[in-house]
Every structure is written in C-alpha cells, then in structure tokens.
Write a structure and sequence with these properties.
The complex is a heterodimer of chains A (429) and B (445). Chain A has helices at residues 7-17, 47-56, 105-118, 133-146, 167-170, 173-186, 203-211, 255-266, 284-293, 302-307, 311-325, 368-376, 402-406, and strands at residues 25-27, 30-32, 36-38, 60-66, 81-86, 89-96, 123-128, 150-154, 191-194, 216-219, 223-225, 228-230, 235-237, 247-250, 275-278, 295-300, 353-358, 381-384, 389-392, 413-418. Chain A has 13 helices and 20 strands. Chain A folds into 2 domains: 18-341, Alpha-Beta Barrel (TIM Barrel); 345-418, Alpha-Beta Plaits (2-Layer Sandwich), CATH 3.30.70.20. With 445 residues, chain B is α/β, with parallel strands linked by helices. Helices cover 35% and strands 18% of the residues of chain B. In chain B, strands 3-2-1-4-18 form a 5-stranded parallel β-sheet, with helices on both faces. Classes of the chains: A alpha/beta (429), B alpha/beta (445).
Chain lengths: 429, 445
C-alpha cells in the first residue's frame, strides 16, 4: 500500500530554497540560535513540555520559577485564570493568579539538568524566587549545578501568596540590590532581574538590580488587574470561593505598556544593560517592535497559552523574511532603532500640522468618523446624506486622526501636512 | 467572507471576484480556529495543508503561506480558483458549526498572489540524478507528478499534445473563473524545478511509450486526460449542436469571435461543465439559456457556488426534466420538447430510473444545443500502449500502487476516472510520483 503523503518530508524540500536570515543573538555572552524564548510560566513547567518547545524551534526557555518548598509550600488557587474579552474578540488579555512552581524542587532540578543534556545548544534559564537570603543562594547554586545557562530573578510576580516575595520585593530597591548581590556571589552564570510593571518608574528598580550586579533586565512581568465582575453575586473573577484579587494581567493588551518600559530602560544611559523583552508578543511583528525598542531576547507566554508552541514557526520565518528583504544581516543592526525616536512630549515639533484625507472611493458611508469627530473631536467631518460619503472640513480639522482610527476600512483615511503659515488650521487658530 | 460575484465581470470574461485585500485576509484568517486536528486538511485531496497556510496568514507570515501552497500543490494557484471547496476543505471546517466556514480558497489566492508579487524565491532545481521519467500530458495530474518527481531529483520530461500546458485550466475553464496569471504562475514554478515540457507532441503510435521505456525512461506516467466529450444519439443528425468540450475551448480561446446575441441556447447536463457552458453562453449574449438536467436542483452534481453563478446570469433551470423530442427544420434544431420527471427509486440519477410526470410537458425554442453529459475517455488511450488494460468506456485500470498492467507505466487524473476534479488529479499526480519513486528505487523494470 502507498504510504500517506508526508507533509513533513516535503517541508524539508522547501527549506532548501529559502534564504534564511541569521536570527542568532548574543545575550550576556550566551549564544541564542534565535531571540525567541518561553517566559517563566505554565508553558515551561516541566521537561516534557520544554522539550517539545525546543523541538518546535524556540531558542531559549525561562523555566517556571523555582522556590524552596521547605520555606513556603505553594498551593495553587482555583480557578485561577480569567480572560479579558472585547466584543467578539476573545482573550485580548489574560488575568492569572498562578503561583510559582508547585512541583517538587528536586524534580525541577532534575528536569533542568536533563534538558541541558538533551539540548546542549539551546538556552535554559532558571527562574528563581527566594523567600529569604538563604533561599536565593541555594536556588542559584542548585540551578547553576544543574547546568542552567543563566538565572532570572523573579522580583515581580504580582500575586504571591507570601508577603516577603514577588512584586513587593520588586518595588523595594534595597531588597532588589541585596538579593541580586547574594545571587551574584553564589554563582558564576549571568543573572537577569525581572521587573514588575506595577510601579510608576521602572528605572530605579532596574538600577538597583544593576547595583547588585545584575547582567541583564527582563520586563515586564504581569500587570495587577481585575478583568471582570460577576454582576449576579458581585464577585470579581476569577471567583476563588467568593473572593478574588487584582492579579497578573498579560497578553496583547499589555504590549503597549511593555514597549514603554522597554524603551525607558533602553534609553537610559545609566542603566546600559541588555534587555529581555516580555509583554503580549504573538507574531514576528510584535517581536520586531520589541527589538526596535531595545529587546535583545524576547519572552512569550500568553500567546503560547492560546495557540501552542507552534507559533514559533511563523515568528522565525516571518522575521527571517523581513531581514532578507531588507538586507539585515543580524538583529544587532536594528536593535533599539526606534527607541531613539521616543522623546519627551515637550520636544515635539508642533509646527508640523496635518489634516485628514478621506478616500472617497474607499468610503463605505457608515458615518463612524462623523460620529466620532462630531462628539469626540472638532466637528470637522461632513456627511452627505444623499451620497452617504464623508468628507473633511479642513478649516475645522485639527489633525487628531480619530477618524482614521474608527474607520472600518483600514486604508481609507490618511493625512497630509498643511502649511501652517499659509493655511488656516484649527489647531493653530 | 467571500467577495461577491460580479456578473458584469463575467460578461467581460474578467475574473468574477475581486481578490481579498490585506484587511480582508487578516480578518478572515482571524476567524480561523487554528484547529488542533485541522479537518480542512483532511478534506484536501492534494494535501495542500490549508490549516498551515491560514495560520501563517494569521500570524503575518505571508510568504510562508505562499511557500506552503506552492510546495504542497504544484497547481496551488489554479486550485485557489477552481477547487470545489464547499465539498472539500470548507465542508470540513470547524467554524461551520458556528457560522460561515473560513474562505479557504480566497485566502489561498491571497497567499500565492502575495508570494508572487513580493518576490518569493524561486523553487529549488533538483539534481536530476535519480533517473528519467516521462509524463504524458501537462494537465493537473501530469504537472503535479512532475513537480514531486523533480523535487525528488528525477529528470522529468512532459509530452504535451497542445501548444501550451495547464490542461482543463488552460483550455476549458472560462476566464471569469480563473486568471491567466494563475495558470502561468504554476507553470513557471514547474519550470524552475527543472521540468522539461515538449509541446505539440501527441502520442500517436503504439510504439512510442514502449520505445520510451526502452530508451532511457525508467517509468512513464499517463496523464493525458479526457479524450472526447460524450454526445447523445438523439442529436446525431443535427448541425447546430456541439459538446461542452469544444464549446468551452472556443470560449476560452476566442470568445470575442463568438456571438450568441438573440439566440436561445440549451445546455444538456447538470455538472460543472454544464454550468460553465451555460454561464459562458449567457456571457456571450444569449437571449435565453436553458439548463436541462435529469437531476433536480438540489441533486445537481455542480457546486452550489456554480449554481449561484448561473442564477446570477439568469440561466433558466429545467432541472428534473427529460428531453422527449427534437423539433427541427432540415437538419437544424429549432426547438426541444421535454417533460418533468420523478425518480422511481430514490438516489439513482439515471434515465432508466426516471418516471415522466403527466401534464408537465414543455417545449422550448432553441438555436443551439450544447451537450455536457460527461466524457468518453479511452478510445485513444488503448492505442498508446499494446496490451494496456482498460475498463468499460476506456478508463485505465491501475493497482493499489497506481501502476497499470504494463510494468513501469503509471496513470492518474482523468484517464483513471473521468469527471474528477482538478484537485483530485493533483492528488493522483502526487501519489503517483511517490509510487514511481518507490518503483525505481526498487530496481524498476
């Protein structure tokens, strides 16, 4: 009988012809075959899962955070996830009350050692969280002995059921510096400190980690949030037997916040540490955004929770094609290329003013721009009830582009610059 | 979300649907559930892997999507226009349980056009050092087999009787259903793989294929397609009748020269080619186009999509009826008499099972009759190789290894089952390539 056609065997043929960009990065002296890593979470929970992720193509894994069960025994709350939905879009964000690993520490260490043995060319980062000085030291040593390439210090879990750990530490500069230096003294491998975004300014904490000897910074951990409330019983979700908490929020919704923190740190000359960027990465374009903001490596969880490890294929192929098309030889060439363009709003050039341009051919006549401009901007959109076409009153238009962003036709509204010396412009007059 | 069919475009013989633009494609791919076991894949006879290319579009890996299609389906561009998706991948789509299925062929068209327009690399030219294979016919089965063999490093030569390749996609499918670019693009990819095509080469003598086998070709793949359209005895003596194959070929190659204005046209048949003929006749300006079939409307073998096109073109369906008499002057048909039928036994769609319904007689004024009732393959195929075993009306018999009774000679596409779809023929070609590879690796003849 004929064998069923194997799609896998054909894919190898395809690989022969495709030019592949070099996606490798060097982070703290460690060579990553690509910058894509799993972040410390349920997606990196045990040997079997991590092995499948490596097989799928992930360049590195930050193993789920280890803690000392002898100091504090982890019991996971249940249920512990709640999705944030918007209209028909599900899972635009995810809230979790997950704790650090509840597996036996010896099992986790055994898994780390086995992963390093089976995947010597992949990068394995051990995430650790101590509950006291001694814990930090022990966990660092155990991880190094097991063969971990690097450590990530979890100063940022926003929902630890113990008050001497997690993001509370991450807001306390002295503790961050202290624990980092304990770890640095205990091991030789590079150490990365993971920041909480539940703070106005991340820089002082990152600088404290640097003072303690950190070799790199990773950010962001999840944002404390409440995603939903049951309006029948007045209980926020997830409803953990009548109670809930503001806990870690992640996914596509947090990407803008994460990009901001990464740019803050990349632009700080004082900090000057390599960054591992985290926050809502799902596609190669998300990844590229973080690279352009200064992230050398990238970490992903929520997208894997939703779609599985397989998304790595499209991240690699998409980013590689982008580089080939633009003759980019290494990701270093574009690292932080957009970060320099982030300035203080006081430095904007306000001589530059624009007005909206609506493509009448593409306008479908829904009037969404009219409503938004009428009630939310400067009443600069005219709507012809006969032709059902929108047009711009350039003398009233302030160039805010609200119309563009509410238009259901993505390329219908654009803008053009106006000469503020000659043209009347609502923003100037 | 499917783009609407534009009847104006059909009348101009231009592609009847606009392609999905970037916004459409992203929205559509975002509706896909990215199923674990991807039932759409199981619905594709050519193994195109729609689940993968949709996921690639979903994650903005557009070139990756183009590669998946091109790599898995040597006629992936053609298929994006011609596949009866409602009976295959889209029928299996999980989303169907919730709402309209994913527009899989729309996304397929978006992806290959994106790849072509954005400089996707050429395909890898094989080493051609594994042996020589001859393929008879550059249609879907032949081209697909050639591509797979070339990728396995065989030197492949296709012998095509026409002056261009593409088979039915090139010669029989009207321009409003497929773009010329699709056929050309698939062909250019095949050439990049190093496949040689010799045109205007008809296999005419019984010696030629045995000669090929004795002169350096380790194997031959017969994919010469259908040979002639079936015509009814009823119309034998009349001049103003033709078959769908001749008609559609004229439509394809010189529709500007055909004028059906003011004429009444009757199409006999209810399959895809009948609908293509009817729609083309309407596009050419026919006053009335009748489609007469034994099958009732819901039993027509044509796709719902095709029936939709026909309805947009105001085709009059005389579905569930039978022709009883031809009205003529000299040897010219001027009208048809018919009657509605019901089935004696359910599920058997043939004239022996039809019972005429009293009082439903009708007559039509007709200037042209197009017969679209299937193909009579075979007569020629028997001549190609001495001793080739065929069945019934000349369908080549193959074993489970896709081999004919002549060692080293394999067959696929319409020569092994008339009336198959393009995508099935592609699957045949792929499977045959694997079988030919096994055959040669095991020592050949």
């Amino acid at each position: 009988m004929l064998q069923k056609l194997s799609i896998t065997s054909l894919r190898k043929e395809e690989d022969k012809m495709r030019a592949k960009a070099d996606l490798s990065v060097n982070f703290c002296g460690i060579e990553f075959e690509n910058p894509f890593c799993l972040s410390s979470s349920p997606v990196s929970n045990a040997y079997e899962m991590c092995a499948r992720a490596f097989d799928a193509g992930w360049g590195g894994i930050v193993y789920k955070t280890l803690g000392m069960e002898s100091t504090f025994k982890i019991v996971m709350p249940s249920p512990r996830l709640n999705a944030y939905n918007y209209g028909d879009k599900r899972f635009v964000g995810l809230q979790n009350a997950e704790q650090i690993s509840d597996r036996n520490i010896a099992d986790n260490i055994k898994d780390i050692a086995l992963l390093k043995k089976q995947y010597p060319n992949k990068v394995l980062i051990s995430s650790i969280m101590g509950f006291n000085d001694q814990d930090w030291e022990t966990l660092a040593k155990m991880s190094e002995d097991a063969g971990a390439n690097m450590l990530e210090l979890n100063f940022s879990c926003p929902q630890m059921a113990i008050k001497t750990a997690g993001h509370r530490i991450g807001q306390d500069y002295e503790s961050v510096a202290n624990f980092t230096s304990i770890v640095k003294k205990a091991c030789k491998i590079p150490v990365m400190a993971k920041m909480t975004p539940n703070i106005t300014n991340m820089l002082p904490v990152a600088l404290a980690a640097k003072e303690g000897g950190a070799d790199a910074i990773s950010a962001i951990n999840t944002i404390k949030a409440i995603t939903d409330i049951d309006i029948d019983n007045f209980t926020p979700l997830p409803n953990i037997k009548g109670h809930s908490a503001a806990t870690g929020f992640s996914g596509p919704s947090v990407k803008p916040v994460a990009l901001r923190f990464i740019s803050d740190m990349y632009n700080s000359k004082k900090l000057d540490l390599p960054l591992s960027a985290i926050g809502g990465i799902e596609t190669w374009i998300d990844a590229l955004h973080f690279i352009l903001m200064g992230g050398t490596t990238l970490q992903v969880t929520t997208a894997v929770l939703r779609y599985g490890y397989r998304i790595i294929e499209d991240m690699i192929e998409g980013l590689s094609d982008y580089m080939i098309e633009r003759n980019i030889n290494s990701l270093d060439e574009i690292l932080g290329k957009a970060a320099g363009k982030i300035v203080d709003p006081a430095d904007f050039n306000t001589q530059y003013q624009v007005v909206s341009v609506i493509d009448e051919e593409k306008c479908i006549g829904c009037g969404q721009c009219y409503i938004s401009c009428h009630d939310g901007a400067n009443q600069a959109i005219k709507f012809d009830p006969e032709t059902r076409k929108a047009s711009v009153d350039e003398e009233r238009c302030v160039g805010c582009m609200l119309c563009k962003h509410v238009c259901p036709v993505w390329d219908c509204v654009s803008y053009r610059e106006v000469d503020t010396k000659v043209d009347k412009h609502a923003a100037i007059f | 979300m499917k783009k609407p069919i534009n009847p104006e475009k059909i009348r101009k013989f231009e592609t009847m649907r606009k392609p999905l633009n970037l916004q459409d494609a992203i929205k559509e791919a975002n509706r896909c559930l990215l199923c674990h076991d991807a039932p759409c894949n199981k619905g594709c006879p050519a193994g195109t892997d729609p689940a993968r290319f949709i996921r690639q579009i979903r994650f903005y890996n557009f070139k990756g999507a183009a590669r998946t299609i091109r790599n898995n389906n040597a006629m992936g561009s053609v298929c994006s226009f011609l596949c009866p998706v409602e009976k295959l991948c889209e029928k299996e789509c999980s989303v169907l349980a919730l709402e309209d299925p994913i527009n899989i062929n729309g996304l397929q068209r978006f992806a290959w056009e994106y790849g072509k327009n954005n400089g996707i690399e050429k395909q890898y030219k094989g080493n051609q050092n594994q042996g020589n294979v001859a393929i008879i016919g550059a249609g879907p089965a032949g081209m697909s087999c050639a591509a797979e063999l070339a990728k396995m490093d065989y030197k492949v030569t296709i012998f095509e009787k026409e002056e261009e390749s593409g088979g039915v996609a090139k010669w029989n499918i009207p321009d409003f259903r497929i773009t010329k670019e699709a056929v050309d693009y698939d062909l250019s990819n095949l050439k990049d793989l190093g496949v040689e095509i010799i045109y205007n080469k008809k296999i005419e003598s019984q010696n030629e294929i045995p000669k090929m086998l004795n002169n350096g070709y380790q194997s031959v793949f017969l994919a010469s397609g259908i040979s002639e359209a079936y015509e009814l005895k009823l119309f034998e003596e009349y001049s103003n009748t033709t078959n769908y194959s001749a008609f559609l070929r004229d439509v394809k190659t010189k529709h500007n020269e055909i004028d059906l204005k003011g004429k009444n046209v009757a199409i006999i048949g209810g399959g895809s080619v009948a609908i293509d003929s009817a729609t083309s006749a309407a596009a050419l300006g026919a006053k009335k186009v009748y489609l007469i079939s034994l099958e009732h409307l819901d039993e027509l073998p044509a796709d719902k999509e095709e029936i939709k096109i026909a309805r947009l073109m105001n085709i009059v369906f005389k579905a569930g009826s039978q022709i009883t008499d031809v009205i003529s002057t000299d040897n010219e048909i001027t009208g048809l008499k018919g009657i509605e039928i019901e089935w004696i036994e359910q599920g058997k769609f043939n004239s022996e099972n039809a019972r005429q319904i009293d009082g439903t007689e009708f007559s039509l004024n007709v200037d042209l009759v197009i017969q679209a009732i299937g193909t009579r393959s075979g007569k020629e195929i028997n001549k190609t190789i001495p001793g080739l075993i065929t069945k019934g009306n000349g369908i080549v018999i193959i074993n489970e290894n896709r081999e004919t009774n002549i060692p080293g000679v394999f067959a696929g596409g319409d020569v092994i089952s008339t009336g198959a779809t393009v995508v099935q023929a592609i699957g045949d070609g792929k499977n045959a390539a694997k079988a030919i590879d096994n055959f040669i690796k095991k020592g050949g003849r």
